[in-house]
Structures are given as structure tokens and as C-alpha cells.
Amino acid sequence: MRKITFTRYALAAAFVSGTAFSAHGYNMSVNDVEPDIDWNKVPVVEKTMFFPGLITYDWINSPEHKGTLNKDFKTKTCTHCHQGEEKAMGEMLIKHDRLDTMADKPSFIDVEFQFANDDENLYVKATWETQSPFPARMHDTLLFENGKWTVIGGDRGKNPYTPIYEDRFSVMIDDGSVDQFTQQGCWMSCHRGMRDIGQATKRDVLALDVIGFGGLNKKDVRKYLPDTRTERYGVNWDKVKTRDQIDQLKEGGKFVDLMQWRSTRSAPTGSADDGYVLEYRLSDAGTTVFTWNLDRTAGQPKYMYDKSVTGFYALNKADFTDLNMNIAMIEGVNTMSYDPSKIEDGQYLQGRLNRQGVGSAGDNSQVHSSWEDGKYTVVFTRKLDTGNPEDDKIMAVGGTYDFNIAIHDGQTTTRFHHVTFPFTVGIGDGATGDVVTTPVKSPIYDKHRGETQ
Ligand code: HEC
Questions:
Q1: Partner of 144 at 20 to 30 A CA spacing, among 110, 213, 261, 329?
Q2: Model confidence over 261-274: pLDDT tens digits?
Q3: What does residue 120 show for φ and ψ, rounded to 5 degrees?
Q4: Ligand 1 pocket list (CB less than 6 A)
Q5: Average pLDDT in the 221-250 region?
Q6: Which domains does the chain have, with CATH numbers?
């Protein structure tokens, strides 16, 4: 199996020679993970992705949603009744939303997709015009001012005038195990009580079994599937099943896979995070691809940039948008221990560190991304069989899988994204699906044959 290694040497070379710009524009990843695919041979699938407002699973399945009056509602997908309505739906939902801090948010975005596969991988390529005026390469940021470090930044909802936040491209997959996911897709994971949708209080969440104090120790409600609640419909975020019941669901594969390309927290290492949704939005087992660069006890950063690799110890404000500079901090690659004597007042460090994922959490280590003329391109390579069925959906050539895709663009978070309706993807010639992937030869594998370790 091919393993991508982040050698200090290779990455140092990339930093020094300034390969951030390639013929394809600004390369978001420091290492080269772009599969050598002739995309001209792969059909373009255009999708309009829309702002879903406050539409939650309980609303979709309540009498307020006129669709439920249809006696076959349970067996129909959104597109059965709403085919081609994405744009109109986004326009209607945004009009009735409270978006005072995001007045210019588009109600929909047009995205070009291409889907390909080989024996080992699924490839999803997506291109969209971004609202961010530059690639979003900063997330939580550390500012040194008057001898003190503070965390600054925030998404556009919370910090409308000076947001510092990443953009995201998220893929949710099921293999038919989760009842209703084919029909209702990502709405299965979207409920009242979640952050920014009639938010449950910290105190109430901490008081919950399984989710709260003594369990996952969470302070808010994030994505979950209705199967994990004792009541399927209505407001049910607080009606959590027991740990044993939830563990059994997981063993039965009744979770959905959720992988997120993050323009700051994963793109620099050519990766996407790897998680799943069950009773909460959780990370796969192993080491995640990002962590904090903050020693909270000491109130200072863990690391600064290693000047011998990057040419600087810390950032100045203008560097945030200087595309001649690689400004990601990759643990152990271009970082060194924090030394206060090297930092000047008014300088910045990344609040988050990129690192190589390990185990199932590190499965998505071949996600190429670039930014050119105001457009992002993400080429998501996903092993069909990751070898980790306990928290991934395993795919195979000839199979059909349920997909839902979301884009958080313009430095936004939570529900302030654009989504597709759920759709099915068939893998390879002869497979069935709303989209069927085009077989290509195994370029990554061939290119690196001999380097395999
Ligand atoms: C069986 C048909 C059917 C299905 C399946 C269905 N809907 Fe609907 N939906 C309707 C009807 C009918 C309305 C009433 C408004 C209309 O005529 O468009 C509606 C209204 C809506 C509205 C509000 C728009 C408005 O004009 O009030 C939203 C949002 C919506 N549906 C989303 C969804 C989503 C998301 C799904 C899939 C999870 C879905 N619907 C599945 C039939 C359906």
C-alpha cells in the first residue's frame, strides 16, 4: 500500500523553492498529491448547491412539510419532488432567514463535479467560484500583543468584518445501511438543538447521558442520526439511547461517513479529515490531521515557524494573503519550539497545526486542492476500501452508494453552507446511480510504483 510521507527534506525543498505557485495556480497542498487523470475524458456534472436555511430532519418529517401528505413520502427522495428546484429553494430559504451578519451570502452556488474511479480509488473533482477573496489559509489565529497571546479570528457569522476562518468541502457517504439516508441524505443529521439552530444550552448538553459529562463530555449538539435517539421524530436531541444501544448501531454499520477537506486545517498536508456521524459528529480512530498550537496552561503557542525552513519565525498581517508564502504550520516539518525572544509585538502564529493523520483518521491523505482566479478546485481521492469498516463506508467497483455534499464557502461555519440534495453514485461502467464514475487507469499507483513502502 502506498503511503505518503511528509519528509522534512521534501517539504523543506518545497518551501524554499517557493513551489506554492504551479502552472495550475496556487497549490494549497505543500506536497504533490494531484492524481494524473485526464479529466477531459470524464463528464462534467453540474450541480446547484443551495443554502438550506433552518430546514431540519424534524421539519422535513412533520406535517408542516407538505411533502409528507404524499402517501409514498417515506420512499421518495427529495429530488423525486424537488428536481431542479435547488436555486428557487435557496432563494426562498435565504429570504426567510436571519442573516443580518451575512447580508451578501449567496442563496446558491454552481459547482462543477467530475467523478472517476480505478480499482483502488474513487476520485471526486469539484470546482467552484469562492466568495473568499483569497484562499482561506488561516483559522483560529494567535496574536502577540503587549506581551500577551490571544486567540483571534472567527467565522463570518460571528466576526462579519474581519473573519479569519477556513473554507470546507464535505462528503457524506452511506452504503444503504442507514434507514432513510437514501431519501433524506444529510437532513438525517440536521436537527433542532444543534449549534445555530435553536441551540441547546451548554448546561443541558453536559447533563445528558452518553453525550454530556461522564460520556463524550460535549457542550453542544452537533450532527447525529435519528436512530441514536429513543424518539425518531420531533425535538429529540436530548432523547439519547444508551451507550450499549449506540455501540450496537455502530457495529451494524448504521453510521454515515463524513470527510471534510478544510482549506486551513487539512489542505496543506494534502489531506481531508475522516469522521463519521452517529450519536454525534465524531472522528475516526487514530490521530486526526490537525490539532491546536496552543499550550493553554502556559497561555502561549506550542510552536513557531522554523526559520531555517520557512525564512521566518512568525507572520505579519500582510502574509495572510501573500500567495508567494506557504504559511501553514506542519508539526515536525516547518515548526520549532516556541521561543518568545524571536517574536515581535503584533506578530501572528497559526492557532492550529497540520500533522500527518494516523490510523483510520488518516485515511484521506491524497486530497489535492488549488486556488486560481477566485476558484477553488478540490480533487478528493478516497480509497474504495479503506480497510477500516468500523468507522468508514467500504465501497467496491460495481456498487451504488448514497452521497451528500456540502461546501462551506466565504469563511462560514455550521448551517451556513451550501448543500446538494442526496444523490447516488455508481462506481464504474455498468453500475447504477444518478452519477456513474468513469473508470480511469490507476495513475497514482503507477506513478509511484517502486516508491511504495
Ligand atoms: C413526496 C414529495 C416530496 C418529497 C419526497 C420532499 N418534498 Fe419537500 N415539499 C414537497 C411539497 C409538496 C412542498 C410544498 C411546497 C411546494 O409545492 O413546493 C414541499 C416543500 C418543501 C420546502 C419548503 C419550500 C416551500 O415552498 O415551502 C422545503 C425546504 C423542502 N420541501 C425540502 C425538502 C427536502 C430537503 C426533501 C428531502 C429530504 C424534501 N423536501 C422531500 C414535496 C416533497
A1: 261
A2: 999 999 999 999 99
A3: -105, -30
A4: 55, 60, 65-67, 70, 73, 76, 78, 80-82, 89, 92, 184, 187
A5: 97
A6: 8-132+167-289+356-448 (2.60.40.1190)
